[in-house]
Automatic annotation (TrEMBL):
This is Ubiquinone/menaquinone biosynthesis C-methylase UbiE. The lineage of its organism: Archaea, Methanobacteriati, Methanobacteriota, Stenosarchaea group, Halobacteria. InterPro entries: Methyltransf_25, SAM-dependent_MTases_sf. Coiled coil: none annotated. Keywords: Methyltransferase, Transferase, Ubiquinone. One of its GO terms (molecular function) is methyltransferase activity. Residues 55-148 form the Methyltransferase domain.
Length: 253
């Protein structure tokens, strides 16, 4: 399915409930233009332990990071719960190993593997309850060798987080334009939020368009709570690093 097929599918039944993640082609089209993929490679390389040869990515999606690094390490492994995303990743990579699994329920140790470094490129926002965060921290710990490193980034929750935001972002190619309208609001004192999206997709070649609405429930995370959770999972050190953009979480087994 390319974006023209997404347009057709939406227009065939425009009122059914949808998620952004059921259309990996739309996901890839949008994120490949809206996100800095090379910065993700840089984040991985920044925290590589000495002599690292085995890399695990939790929440690998359509595999953009795996494809960029698979020639640089002896073993590259990606995990994602979404079957459609994994299918796209399988077509994209040539050496990396892929596994469909929920990373709150799966660890590499279950497969008899350990890795030098594990990364999660922003997926903490999907973990909306404390038990899921605790389960993931334990699985990340079990997936690493002694001295192994885990790193992720997240939007921190604080009193400075604005309740009620509106945003518009546009990405395009020669043929397509995708305009994403979003409205977000906090829904709890623990950092939960709901975002309503409207994606306007224009196919200039066919002179057709579609509007798709989705709703996402996520969570901003408290840095202190994350440090405590990863320390409780067994990590020898767990630190958060403030910087321009999302905050980093860096933990060493």
């Amino acid at each position: 399915m390319d974006l023209s097929a997404v347009v057709d599918d939406v227009n065939e039944n425009p009122h059914r409930r949808r998620t952004f993640y059921e259309y990996p082609e739309l996901y890839e089209f949008y994120h490949s233009r809206a996100l800095d993929r090379e910065a993700q490679v840089g984040l991985l390389e920044r925290f590589l332990p000495e002599g690292a040869t085995r890399v695990l990515e939790f929440g690998c999606g359509t595999g953009p990071l795996l494809a960029r690094i698979e020639d640089d390490y002896e073993e590259v492994f990606g995990v994602d719960v979404n079957e459609s995303m994994i299918a796209v990743a399988e077509r994209r990579v040539s050496k990396a190993t892929l596994r469909r699994a929920d990373f709150t329920e799966w660890s590499a140790a279950a497969d008899g593997r350990t890795f030098d470094i594990a990364v999660l490129m922003g997926g903490l926002l999907h973990l909306t309850d404390d038990r899921s965060v605790e389960a993931f921290a334990a699985n990340a710990y079990d997936s690493l060798r002694e001295g192994g490193v885990f790193v992720t980034f997240f939007q921190p929750f604080s009193e400075d987080v604005e309740n009620g935001t509106v945003d518009v972002q546009t990405v395009e190619s020669e043929r397509y334009t995708v305009e994403r309208h979003s409205t977000s609001a906090l829904t709890s004192r623990e950092g939960h939020y709901t975002t309503t999206y409207a994606f306007d997709i224009v196919d200039r070649k066919r002179d057709e368009s579609a509007r798709m609405g989705t709703v996402f429930d996520g969570r901003f995370h408290d840095p202190d709570a994350l440090r405590e959770t990863f320390s409780a999972a067994g990590f020898e050190t767990a630190e958060t690093i403030d910087r321009e953009g999302p905050t980093l979480l860096h933990a060493v087994k």
